[in-house]
Structure formats: C-alpha cells, structure tokens
Amino acid sequence: MEEIVNITTFDDDIKIYQLIDGFRFSVDPIILVDFFEGNPEKKVLDIGSGSGIIPILLAKRKNMKNITGIEIQKESLDIFKRNVSENKLEKNIEIVYGDVKEYSKSNYYDYIISNPPYMSLDGKKISENENKKISRHEIKLNLGELIKNSKRLLKPRGELFLVHRSFRLSEIIKELEKNNFSPKKIKFVYFDRNKNSNLILIQASKGRKNKLEVVPPLFLEEEGY
Fold first, then answer.
1. DSSP for 153-182, written as a single string
2. Cβ-contact 117, 132 below 8 angstroms
3. Strands annotated E in the chain
4. Which of 5, 95, 97, 161 could form a Cys-Cys staple with 113, CB 3.0–4.6 A?
C-alpha cells in the first residue's frame, strides 16, 4: 500500500509516492542534491535510489539529463518507476534493478551520488521490516563496498558525492583514501546550532589530489529545510 507525498516546500511540481510501511526519505537526499555540482550533459549514477527522490531532484533542480538510478529492493524499485513516470522523466532517468556490486559499467560515469545506509551491523537485533532494515543498515552494501564500487564505476577524475552520519567521518576518509579518492569538499550539517553535527556532505575526486575545502556549515532549521 502506498501514499502520495507532495514536496511543495522545495519543488511544488514534484509528486513522490512512498511505501507507508517502508523506508521514507527525510531531508538527507534533498540537501545532498543541493550540495551536488555537475555538468548537466554528463552521466550521473545514484546508488541505492529507493523511491527515486535523488534522480528526480537531479533532473528537476540540477537539469541533469543522463541519470541512472540503481536499486536492489523490488518494492522500492516499483515505487521508483512510478515516480519517474508520474514526473514525466523517462527520457532523463534510467532505472536499474540489481546489486551495484554486480553492475558492469566500469569507468562509465562522470559522477556518483548516494544517500547510503548509515548504520553498520554490530550484532544487535534489528526489529524493523525488511525494507527499512536494508535502507538504514549495511546489510546489502557497506561503506567500504560503496566506495570501492564507486571507484570502479567512475571515470578517471570522476566525482563522488555522499551524505552520511558525522560520527563516521574518519572511517569515510580512510575508505576514500584507500580507494584512491581525494576528499574535495566537506560540509557539516546541524539540526540544532547548539548541538553536535548530525550529518556530513562530502565530495571526493577519483585519482586526483585536492586541497580539501571545509565549507560553511548548514543549519537546517535556519535555512528553512
């Protein structure tokens, strides 16, 4: 069973269906797309597309014309297809059903973007339904696998854009450097100015050395998110 969500705050012409009992996106993919910078004519891959919010926002807000979204969960994939059709973006967005670890287009994409599962498996019992578990926890794809496969699928000097939990920053940088990525830009995100950062936005380059830029932070409530 599905429900319709009309994202009037950001793009009132976008209509997104989501599973009532499944994983539902929040502000994370929206701020990630706002953080993204790219040439509209070049190829971008979204890893773990879910309902398709990132590809749809890339097409609508960034005018990207050659977008691929890959999703491993059939339930989410069906919603993704419906959302692309509803928003009349079939010419802009290619939908792939499968595991990115088995996806064959090596050295193909100019950009990769992802709002991946944040939580590593630590042996604790997870009581959520299957769709939520896979979307939130590193069951099908962990951080190392995400970055390793991003390296494989990106062209030389391609760019990777991620949103993730701030407490995993050191691990993220370690995995990036291990896979020949150089962090280019980091933005810390705060739900509350008086508390620690909750999220980070990261841009990294494959096979190119960068001078890391830590850009001004994002305070979600103050910025109207």
1. HEEEEEEEEEEEEGGGHHHHHHHHHHTTEE
2. no
3. 2-6, 15-19, 43-47, 66-71, 93-97, 109-114, 154-165, 181-190, 199-206, 213-214, 218-219
4. 161
Distance of CA 215 to the CA centre of its chain: 19
Note whether residue 159 is domain-resident.
Answer: yes
> What's this model's pTM, rounded to 2 decimal places?
0.90
Sort 145 into a burial class: Cβ within 10 Å, 0-12 / 13-18 / 19+: middle
Please name the residue that has the structure tokens 């069973």: 1
| Amino acid identity for residue 84 in this structure | V
Are the beta carbons of 24 and 50 closer than 8 angstroms?
Answer: no
Q: Read off the pLDDT of residues 121-155 as tens digits, 9 standing for 90 and up.
A: 665 656 566 565 555 555 668 999 999 999 999 99
Within-domain flag for 5 = no
